[in-house]
């Protein structure tokens, strides 16, 4: 990413910005007395039983609000239906085909109770695991809330993942029930979610039932012993299900994400700390008020959707927009149309989407009245200054602030972002600006020494924060090794960062083997272990190269087994294999066939060299390379393609 010093000095003003205090004071207080600070903040939650201890920090495990009891579905619904929020809109939902649904808080409350009752009848109880494999339809947040109500631990699997990827997650979490839909709409096509769910259920003996939400009209075969229609299990149900009194640190959900291993890891989040963190950070970063119409465009299958489509807006009693389909269907103006139609005031999306819109031209948003907007946001990968400025000018009309929010699945909610809800900072396009209160950031060199401003190193977080993951599900060793071993006592996110002379933070991308394709996280190991699973492949190395729209694109170098020759057919076949074992997001931009992969003398694949070849950069130090011919060959394959 090119860094720029062009500072946007315009500070958003006007009645919308009612900052709640001085950023520096609040931040200082959160550093000097974290427990006092968080105890005060936690007054905003409704507790069934108050906590006894604010923080129990036994590195690397933080347990917040120990002894407290609460339920997140109660936070999101029950307490609102006792007030005037009851009849307020919780979700304006719109399907890809244009159908709409308006769900008030009361309606969400009724549905959540009924879905919880139906799950209970299927035998789901506190501590059970439930997998949710659903498109962006209202049933998804309702089931998440119903699980939270019962104390069942849910795992949402992104609907674009394949049946095999679903099976991997269902098996790891040990889900008793998979909840899916007959299918989903995507750019006018119907994708067969139910069939993928069946593939997973057949592979995973833990699965007892598949619940199917009727969404698309097409026929799906139902196994009478295993499959049930949601409509059937809801028939005649209209009852109140008392929310379970959950321990503050009881697990709420597991969300799988990519790391350095071939298998996605289950990030485990708890109840109270998570609930508090996401609600507070939403307030600080976007400054919503009770008239806000909030639209976070993320799919609920990712952490952004969990925290900022479902739970935080509901905790705060906000109105949200939820849209099922693709941003460019039926045309590239669909999102702008929706902003104008629903009077969206806060719009939160990804750099990938912004760059796609940029490519299509500013005339598309210019056709719509976007004057309802009061706050913008960005998430998922570094936003390049050009995209930031395009967003600021063409969507924000140079009037409103952009919150570039840096965070991760593991952090639960925003970690670094402008905070117009506290005090608007001047902005610099491409910088996520300053840490949230409670986030103690440092930039370290490889030896763990703090770097002076202006130098790039590893970002670390030196204090636990309430939204921090509880653990990696059933893998404490990986948890300790991934986040806590390199710089003991400090949480290691795995990103490069630079603090500039004004103490603004620039997040500069991953420092590890994680690739970000259109903001989606995937690891080289995951891609490699998928592709070597194909019988024609002997060895493979995955890397990425920069992509103008997607941020990064996947490149694979592959050696084939004897008996298979490189051909366009085998290339297409391997692409199909990746999509079938992982999902559409694993689609490579290019597959290069070579006879040798560059390796160190100890046999480690040197992806750094392949990446240099794939980007046309200089290869640099090759002194540890075992056989120089491998690089020449990779380069020749690359040149041939050009
Ligand atoms: O590299 C950072 C990048 O996304 C990673 C986390 O990915 P994931 O867990 O899938 O969560 C994405 C949504 C929170 C980070 O390690 N990332 C996320 N937001 C930003 C970012 N990089 C730069 N700027 C951001 N605003």
TrEMBL record:
The chain crosses the membrane at residues 130-161. Residues 80-465 form the AMP-dependent synthetase/ligase domain. GO terms for molecular function: acetate-CoA ligase activity. The keyword Transmembrane helix applies. The keyword Hydrolase does not apply. Belongs to the ATP-dependent AMP-binding enzyme family. It comes from the Bacteria. Keywords: Acetylation, ATP-binding, Ligase, Membrane, Nucleotide-binding, Transmembrane, Transmembrane helix. Its EC number is 6.2.1.1. The gene is acs. Residues 526-604 form the AMP-binding enzyme C-terminal domain. This is Acetate--CoA ligase. Residues 23-76 form the Acetyl-coenzyme A synthetase N-terminal domain. Pfam families: ACAS_N (PF16177), AMP-binding (PF00501), AMP-binding_C (PF13193).
